[in-house]
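Page header: ASSEMBLY MODEL / two components / 225 residues total.
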Amino acid sequence: DAKTTQPPSMDCAEGRAANLPCNHSTISGNEYVYWYRQIHSQGPQYIIHGLKNNETNEMASLIITEDRKSSTLILPHATLRDTAVYYCIVRSGTASKLTFGTGTRLQVTL
Amino acid sequence: NAGVTQTPKFRVLKTGQSMTLLCAQDMNHEYMYWYRQDPGMGLRLIHYSVGEGTTAKGEVPDGYNVSRLKKQNFLLGLESAAPSQTSVYFCASSYSQGAVNTEAFFGQGTRLTVV
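Prediction written out in full:
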């Protein structure tokens, strides 16, 4: 699976959009981009995933660049409860392993 | 629907003791995973399984053994616990990569302290 690079930490004001970037320049054609988050010391929670089209669900939007070398997770109206570590993972369609990096610690403030 | 359940939630072991962590899922998932997470670190994959009766090593398998005798259960064993195995252990499960929904579901973790 391709390696991902994320900033170690970010801040966001409550009510504003949180844009979390992820670089995956070595991604190959059959690899998906997944996002998970871990709130405090709970088990990680799935957020969204995509292959090449932008995706949106009730939690977030995922924007993938045309060359697929980077992506951005968007939380449209961040709340204090969105404070968490966000993990970007690249995983092929046939891979069984799920490998986490170090993630981005998002702090949402008043 | 319970999802992924880990047993126990907390445990303190003495060095050299053995124990087994149980992970149970009720979603009929093929894949199951065991991770450890040390303070301030990301999750590291210990072992995983792609189906009943099969297991494979992850990034940090040394000192651990696993078994998947039933599809719904994935056991993680520590034969001789060491202080370096003090960590939070997470289990996860997912459908195989050929399925439409491939997201992983995680348990709430087991906090293990080895003294």
